[in-house]
Amino acid sequence: MFKGLKMNLQLMVDAGAGGGTPNQTDGGTNTDTGAGEGFNAGATENNTPSFDDVLGQNKDYKAVYCGWHRNGKIVIPKRKGNLGFELLSGDSLIYTNTIMMWKNIAEKIGGWDERFRRNQEAAFLLRYFKYGFSIGVIEECLVEFDTSDRRNQLDSEKNEEQFEFYLREHEDMIKKLAEFDKNARKKIYSKRYRGVLLYHLKSKNIINAFKVYIKMIKYIPIMFNKDIIVYICYRLINKDICNY
User: Fold this and answer.
1) 172 CA to centre of own chain
2) Which residues are CB-contacts of 72 (< 8 A; sequence separation ≥ 6)?
3) CB 4 within 8 A of CB 99
4) Which of 45, 129, 178, 206 could form a disulfide with 184 if both were Cys (CB 3.0 to 4.6 A apart)?
5) Predicted pLDDT of residue 28
6) Statement: residue 39 has pLDDT above 60
7) How far, CA to CA in Å, does 241 sit from each of 68, 123, 135, 136, 138?
8) 3-class SS at 222?
9) Is pLDDT larger for residue 152 or for residue 180?
10) What pLDDT score was predicted for residue 146?
């Protein structure tokens, strides 16, 4: 449906990786071209759909996101609506480059929070949801990532610090979710710290991985061990196409 966007999104992703303001792509390229009101867009060719076209065809939402191809895997997202819990727990992943949002809405919610070294897009969307908005989904792979340059990758200790900061800064949302699900906090912390532990192991930081494991089994032993087992089983299946 929107295949004409793929080339433009590819150019945007290949530009690099970095921070950004509400008028910038993930590569730090200013996209306030005056050619439209859509956010997260490079200028499109005359014979391809614009980001305004995509948003205009999803009038029930002020923002949408699409699928992507990264490290040999295609992810076709399915979820839409208020994905606050999913972004806090990590059940849903939405990359910056896949988000298309009306510029006035991006400005209304305060734009990019540059305090976050990681999870910038999640923090941005969580504020979007706090304003009462929902996100739509385009079930097509329109973005292809070039991940050959990993200079922006954090070491495992700083990664843990960033996730602690991310959860601490969204404590109000976690409390709100707990009003509807008494186990919401435990579910969020279990899944997030599972990721922290696995990243320590991937980085061969065994001591810190052990510390995280001890910390979490003291808090939620059954849930944490279950989440680790579920993740390992999922990875063993090693699906080429994932649905989020």
Assistant:
1) 19
2) 240
3) no
4) 178
5) 34
6) no
7) 10, 26, 22, 20, 16
8) helix
9) 180
10) 83
The pLDDT tens digits of the residues spanning 180-229 come to: 999 999 999 999 999 999 999 999 999 999 999 999 999 999 999 999 99
Q: Would you say 94 and 67 are in contact if contact means Cβ atoms under 8 Å apart? A: no
Q: Which amino acid is at 30?
A: N
Tokens 């930081």 label which residue? Answer: 205
Cα of first residue to Cα of last residue in the chain, in angstroms, is 20
More confident residue, 148 or 78: 78
Q: How far apart are CA 82 and CA 112, in angstroms?
A: 19
Backbone angles phi, psi at 14, to 5 degrees: -70, -10
* Closest to 227 measured CA to CA, from 90, 93, 97: 90
Residue of 77, 63, 13 whose CA lies nearest to 244: 77
For the record, the structure tokens of 117 come out as 């070294």
CA angle 65, 182, 126 (to 5 degrees): 25
Bridge-based pairing state of the strands 63-70 and 135-144: parallel
d(CA 27, CA 81): 27
Dist. CA 232–CA 244, nearest whole Å? 17
pLDDT in tens, 6-21: 544 443 444 333 333 3
